[in-house]
Structures are given as structure tokens and as C-alpha cells.
């Protein structure tokens, strides 16, 4: 289950009302933090020498997936002398859109990198945020992470077909959970692939992977979608049973059949990217891209890929622009299917 910041609302009210309530709550709770952090970002990253100082902004609390990317980049840049002074700033709230909004006003300041990815793009759509990825300068997609479909070890569902059959029979009676908005998108994609109306599905949003696992183990939920790195220990220990990996192709080293192999065409991945403020010169954008690519080549970053069970996927330049447009359309369609 994804550990990135999530604000998917609980059941009991209309999707629109629930979303608005949670967004307002998240915004109020993080307003003071965002204001304070904005000052530290602008002061720490003053100047344009990319190798002198850099602030990497994680749009979530410490310990999550975006935070892990930020801190691994920091370590790689420090250890190899790529940047003299690198700091990580956590700016949680509203699925990452609080941080996105703050970075969007740092126009022309290339010494800032915002970590984001599928979840951040999804949040801009889900909450119709004032700031979008059009208000920053996407630099590179770096890695992607795969979700898995899991059930408790004592679940009666031995295969994905078993689970889907019961789900089809009564969608509301088989509650799902997940640790973030991305996980709900994956569940929605699976529902559509299985011919199930996502609006009829019971989805219980959990606050992170640990809470989602507890919801499975205590019977609150019967199935879950979540990040493979977050679930691997529970699968290995025998507490959870993995029914499918959400990936286009089988992944070397992961002995879990893909949903596609089992006849369900869903392959949304949790990719991670970095973006910079807007209004950069072509020279600044090129230098920043080169710096990120240098970071990805370091032994420290390659070690992080192995530890986090990431899959390297590097996309930059014009290809990145097309990729983000395609993903935005795909995610918007999923939210429409969810009735949001």
C-alpha cells in the first residue's frame, strides 16, 4: 500500500462532498507548515549555481515514498560531490498539491527540485488544484514502482479469478483498502478490467501502508492494492497472499503473476519524477537535467533502486512531455469512472 500522502475520503457522504471536506482539512492543517517551509526553501536555494546548493522538496511527511526518493537523491549527490549543500524539505498536504503550489511561485529559481509522480498528478486532478504540473518544469521520470493485489493469508480467495468472481457477485460486499490515492486508482482500473462498476465498489482509504495492512488483518477489508515494496515483508512472512502484480510485463525477481497474464488489462505504475520551478532558461533546464542524470548513475542511487525494489525508468525532454499528457488523460478517465 502506497506510503505517499493520501487524502481519499471515507465512506458515508457523496464523493464530491467528501473530497472537498478532506481537501479543506488538509489545507488548514498544513498552511502554517507550508508558509514556514517556503521561507527556508527560498533562502536556502538562493543563487543559480546548481552545484553549490540544492533544495529537494518531498511533498509528504518523512518516511513515505516521496521522502525516500528525496533523501536517496540527497545522499547520492552528497557522496559524489555533485552538489556542495543539499537539503531535503518535507512539505506534506493534500496529496502533494500544497508543495506543488509553493514551488509554482518560485519562478526562475533552478536550485529547487520537487519530487512527485503518479500520486501528485492524480491529486491535481482529484482536487482540481490551482497549481498543476503545467506550473512547474518537469525534469525527469526516474523510477517506477508496482502495486500488488493482496489478501490475508487465510482468505478464501486463492487466485485473482476467485477474488474477482466474488467481487462481481456483490461489489459492495467485498471491501477494498489501500494506502493512498494511487492504490485506489489501481483498484478502479482492475474493476474496469473485470467489468465491475467502480462506483459500486466499497473502498476504504487507509492512512498509509501500515494501516491498510491492519485493515486486512483485522477483517475490515478483504482485499487491497498497495506498493510491492510496502508489502514484500508481509508477503514473505506469510501474513498476506499476493494474487497479482500490476505491471505490463513479468518483472525479474518478483515471483507474482501479473494481472495482465491472468486476463485483466491493468498496468498503471507508480512512477516517481522530479520537477523544478517554471521560467527556467534552456541552459538552466539542460544543466538541471544533466545533474539529475548524473545522480541516477551514482552507486548510491543504484543501491537505492535495489533496496526499494524500484524499476529504473528514465524519461526526459520531449518524451517526458508526451508521457505526462498521456498519464494525465488516463488518470482523469479513471476519476470520471469513479464518479469524482
From TrEMBL:
<protein>
    <submittedName>
        <fullName>Tricarboxylic transport membrane protein</fullName>
    </submittedName>
</protein>
<dbReference type="InterPro" id="IPR042100">
    <property type="entry name" value="Bug_dom1"/>
</dbReference>
<dbReference type="Pfam" id="PF03401">
    <property type="entry name" value="TctC"/>
</dbReference>
<comment type="similarity">
    <text>Belongs to the UPF0065 (bug) family.</text>
</comment>
<dbReference type="InterPro" id="IPR005064">
    <property type="entry name" value="BUG"/>
</dbReference>
